[in-house]
Amino acid sequence: DLQICQHRAPTCCTKKMEESYQAAVRRERTQSIQALNFELKYMIVGHITAFQEAFESLLRFAENRTSSLFETAYRPMAKEAAEPVKELFTDISLYILGAETTVESAVLRFFDSLFPLVYSRLINPGITDLSEDYTECLRLTRQDINPFGHYSKNMVTELSKSLWASRMLSQALSLGIEVINTTEHAALSRECSRALVRMQYCPHCQGLTLIRPCVGYCLNVMRGCLASVSELDAQWREFISTLEYLTNEMAASHELEVALSGIWSSVNEAILHAQLNGPQLSATVDKVCGQPKQQEGNLSSASIVPVKEVTETKTFVMPHTSLNTKRREFISYMKRSRTFYASIAERLCDGDLVMRDSSTCWNGEDVV
Predict the structure, then answer these.
(1) Alpha-carbon torsion, ordered 73, 76, 79, 80, to 10 deg
(2) Which residues are paired to 213 by β-bridges?
(3) I need a labelling partner for 190 at 20 to 30 A (CA). Which of 38, 151, 245, 273 fits?
(4) What are the GO cellular component annotations (predicted)?
(5) What percent of the chain has pLDDT over 70?
(6) Which residues of 156-183 are buried (b: 16+ CB within 10 A; e: fewer)?
C-alpha cells in the first residue's frame, strides 16, 4: 500500500511511515529556508534598528537645538513654545516611520501655533488677554498674512526633500522583512512533498540510511519545489536597486543631517522676519481679529525683546553615529544578496544534504 516509496525490492516502510516522512520534509524545508534567510533577515532588522536609532538621535539633537534657541533668544515665549516644538519633531518622527501625514502639514501647524506667541510676546508684548478665540483668530490669520515670509515654505521644501528618502527607505526595509517572512512559510504542494520524500527518505525503506541524493537530482527536485519562490528573483533585484537609489538620495545634497540640524536657523529667521514687519502685521491683525487688551502704563524694558541676529550660545555636537557609514555598509551587503532568490535551490542542495566527492548516490530509483 505504499504511495511514494514503491520499489521491487523488499521494504521496511509502511504507509504511516510515508505520512511521517511527508510531515518531516515539510518541517525540514521550512527550517532550511529559515536558516538561509536568517543572515539576510538579521542584517535588515539590524539596519532598521540602526537607522531608527540614528534618526531618533538626530531628531533629539535638532529638537534640543531648536528649544535652546527659544531659551536663549526668545525667553518671554520659551515656556509656551516648548509644546509646538515637541509636536513638530514628533510629527517628523511619525512621518519617517510611515504615518499618514506630510512634512508640509507638520511644519505649517508648527508655524500656526508659533504666530500667536510671537505676536503677543515679541511684536506686542503688552497684550494681557490672549483668549482662546483671539489665539484661534491669530492662528487662522497666519495662513493669510504670512508673517514668517518665505522661511516657512523654505523649511517645508528642505525637509520634504531630505525626509522623503528616509521615509521610503524605512518602508522598503519593512517590506523586505515581510517578503522574507512570507517565503519561509510558502506552502509545499503535494507533488513537491512527495518528491522530497522520494529524494530524502525512500532510500531508508531499503536500509540505505547513509546514502544521499545525487547533486543533479537534488537540484531538479528543489527547483521544482521552489519555482514560485525563485520567481521573486526579478522583483528582488529591482528591490535591491531601489534600496540603492534611496540610500544615494539620502546621501545627496539635501542631506537629512543638514536639514534637521538647520531647523533652528529657519525658525530664527522666520521670527526675525515677523519682528521686522511687526507694525504692518499689527495693523492687519487689528482689522481682522480686533484689538486685544493692553497692559496699562509703560512696558518694562525687560519685556521687550530687541530684534537682533541670534548666534548659538550653546555648543551642540552632532550625534556620533554617522548615517552615511551605516548606509554604505548596508547597501554593500544588500548588493551581495542580489541573487538570493535565483540561487535558493543551489544553496539548499549544498552541504550535508547531497553526496559529494563519492562514487555512489541516490537518483530517486536506485543507487548509482
Answers:
(1) -110
(2) 362
(3) 38
(4) cell surface; extracellular region; plasma membrane; side of membrane
(5) 88
(6) bebbbbbbbbbbbbbebbeebeeebeeb
SS3 category, 213 = strand
Decide: 22 and 291 in contact? Cβ < 8 Å: no
* 97 contacts 126 by C-beta, under 8 angstroms: no
Cell of 334: 544588500
Joined together, the cell numbers standing for residue 154 give 523654505
212 Rama sector, left if φ>0, alpha if ψ -120 to 50, beta otherwise:
beta
CA distances from 363 to 6, 10, 75, 205, 290 (A): 14, 18, 83, 15, 92
Q: Is residue 148 a contact partner of residue 267, using CB atoms and an 8 Å limit?
A: no
Are 266 and 151 in contact by the 8 Å Cβ rule? The answer is yes
Band of residue 317 on the pLDDT scale cut at 50, 70, 90: low
Cell of 48: 532598521
128-150 burial, b at 16+ Cβ within 10 Å, e below that, comes to eebeeebbebbbebbeebbbbee
Q: Which residue has the cell 518622527?
A: 93
pLDDT at 319: 52
**Secondary structure letter of residue 188 according to DSSP:** P
Grid cell digits, residue 317? 555636537
Where do we find the cell 540510511? Answer: 209
Cα(299)–Cα(256) distance, rounded to whole angstroms? Answer: 43
Digit-coded pLDDT (tens) for 24-74: 999 998 898 888 889 889 888 888 888 888 888 889 999 999 999 999 999
Count Cβ atoms within 10 A of the Cβ of residue 127 and give its class: 0-12 exposed, 13-18 middle, 19 or more buried: middle
- Rounded CA separation 161/249 (Å): 9
